[in-house]
Amino acid sequence: MQDTQSILTGSALPKMKKEKNKVWKRVIQNWELYLFIAPAFLYFLIFSYGPMYGIQIAFKNFIPTKGITGSPWVGFDHFVRFFDSYYFWDLLWNTLSISLYDLAIGFPIPIILALAFNEVKDGFFKRLVQTVTYAPHFISVVVMAGMIITFLSPSTGIVIHIIEWLGFDAPQFLTDPAWFKTMYVFSGVWQSAGWGTIIYLAALSGVDPQLHEAAIIDGASRFQRVRHINIPTIVPTMTILLILNMGSLLGVGFEKILLLQNPLNMGASDVISTFVYRAGLVDAQYSFSTAVGLFNSVVNAVLLITVNQVVRRTSENSLW
Amino acid sequence: MMISGVKETGRDKAFLIFNYIYVILALVIVAYPVIYMISASISDPKYVGSGEMWLWPKGFTLKGYQIVFENSKIWTGYANTIYYTLLGTAINLFVTMPAAYALSRKDFVGRNFFMAMFMVTMFFGGGLVPTYLLVKNLGMVNTVWSIVLPSAASIWNIIVARTFFQSSIPKELQDAAQIDGCTNMRLFIKIILPLSMPIIAVMALFYGVGNWNSYFSALIYLNDEAKYPLQMVLRQILVLQEMSAQGGGAMDAASAAALNNKAEVASLVKYAVIIVSTLPIIAVYPFLQRYFVQGVMIGSVKG
Fold it and tell me: Would the keyword Protein biosynthesis turn up in this protein's UniProt record (chain A) (predicted)?
């Protein structure tokens, strides 16, 4: 420390030295703040950056007895094997199509719902609707999967009964690959659309009432006021959420898919993350599945940065 | 939002009517499966399976609950979940609150470095297998630590808490305390924390619900069934049984009937177990809704 100090005194301007001293004074005065941040720092260092160090096994042939550092390097072999495999395009297609389907349905519904809630008069009914529609957010993914399986189970499920009562032939939702994505997306809408309105309602509560008053005086209808006042208000929120969603296009709701997977619907339900789980933790192909996982994370990061870049060019609502 | 004294035009009335229909439809779609499950859990499985019971209970029975409460696996799972949730949430708060406070202080040298280091983990991570290998190398597999430590903090929640400290704790308070010679530790424990009860409640709720509902870390790290949390027991009852029941082959009439009866009881148990496991959260939720909503809103101010 003394060395750097003396070097600085020798060459730097006196003002810089003073600044430097001030910073050090603040560091010493607030030393306890480093104690405060220590648990979180250690947590992220060990459990987030630790696994990042372990990513190197994607380029190695991991042998448990030799450890991460001792295993031999193989370069891009695992990646080549993955890209050349017959299931690569299936996995990529399933992952992307589930995500895009989910985005196309799951993104607009909370927005429409929030705009509609906002037009409901404050009172008991509004509180009831909000309490009820928020509630499924707290149902665990296991229970959610259990509900889907019971409701759609052939011959006894209530959804099957309703479809038959309406006079249609009920499809085999649970085992028909063609229905897997729809089942996944709409159960997700049921569970989280209500909760998703909160963030938009918060933005809508910030609308200046004078705007509405002025619009009424000008003879604007309710619909016109929603269209020209409320919607523009929530556009920044929409943009941010859209960017974040794009950044997780390859990170579909892995836990729910894993629970709903069965040998018969595998053709549509096998996504990159469930494949990583199976290859890595069930079949113990550590290096190969790490490579697949790394491919997934890199695509996610690139997508997020690209979308954010595009949004930054066209509007001022980007993430950074 | 409603401005009184202005007459609604016909167009506006039509709009409002459509709006109410839409909202009521949403309400019914969300509420129906929940009501159905509650009814199904106390109805004769015969009527449930055939579709005769479709809204209100029919053929009242508590057999499903009886079987659930007699099942020792469920009780063990419940006890484990309560233990993991309490310990896990305590650790979550211990990691999150002091860090969020430090990050909220503008005079904290290195604040941007720590923030950047934490934020990177939002967008990029090591992935499943390296994380698993790490936990294994730390010797935590099949212990409670594998459940509570890998999820000890969430960057989202740290940001929410930091935003709360920045916007709700006046800076003058800190200045005054420091002039009086109060250390940061005393300031945090004696002054900041008592003023932050709302955000502590929000954080405890967010983390608590997450811990209560999580199953995946138990799936990959625990191999001793006696340590399984409730969600893993539920997975066995709700998901795995159903899958095995689907692969039935040819059989004679008697065993088919026995199996059918067994399947009926199994479905009754499913509804009962869903209600029993979700009840603690659904029962307290309406009273705490305010806090949950607050949490989301604080987070949305600056994401």
Answer: no
